[in-house]
Amino acid sequence: MYQKEYRLLTNTGVLANRILKNSKIVFRGHPSRVVVDRRDFFEDAYETNAAILYPAGEAVELNESFLKSQKGPLTLICPDGNWAQAKKVLRREPSLKRLPCVKLPEGQITNYRLRRNPVLGRVCTFEAIARALGIIEGAAVQEAMQSVFEKMVTRILWTRGKISADEVVW
After folding, report:
1. pLDDT for 154-168, tens place per residue?
2. Contact 50, 95 (CB under 8 A)
3. pTM of the predicted model, to two decimals?
4. What is the 3-state secondary structure (H, E, C) of the chain?
5. How is the chain split into domains, by residue range?
6. Do residues 123 and 16 lie in contact, with contact meaning Cβ atoms separated by under 8 Å?
């Protein structure tokens, strides 16, 4: 996570971290820490069954075929920040350079209405994680996460006066 994102009310990476028990946040962009160490992401510094959830040019689609090719559980690294910040993770973190990138299936539509996204098909960090876990662990996980997400989004929109109280998901 880009360190300045942590404090933002609209940051969804923090929400994902709070509801997923096997997740952790590793900060980037902190003045006292320039390079992220591979051990920040993995218990075993040499773990290889990992992928970065980011639609880079060479990313393969996260699907059943990809999952069958994996040897054991998959560690999913999800860059968090705006799109420019997330893209820099791939270029600036030497410990992640050799990991493959995976992307969600085409045609994803965001329900994140708190920040503008100029490019169709991009989703926020939380939605990306929920949809990826839906593929990896099943629809029930994705639906439970999306329920929490919709509550957060509608409640923030309501407090901003953008929607009425009867549009809020309670």
Report:
1. 999 999 999 999 999
2. no
3. 0.87
4. CEHHHCCCCCCHHHHHHHHCCCCCCCCECECCECCCCHHHCCCCCCCCCEEEECCCCCCEECCHHHHHCCCCCCEEECCCCCHHHHHHHHHHCHHHCCCCEEECCCCCCCCCCCCCCCCCCCCCHHHHHHHHHHHHHCHHHHHHHHHHHHHHHHHHHHHCCCCCHHHCCC
5. 3-105+124-167
6. no
Write phi, then psi, for 40 (nearest 5 degrees): -65, -25
C-beta of residue 41 within 8 angstroms of C-beta of residue 50: yes
Residue in this structure with the two tokens 């439970």, named with its chain if needed: 144
Angstrom distances, CA of residue 98 to CA of 5, 56, 114, 136: 26, 13, 34, 22
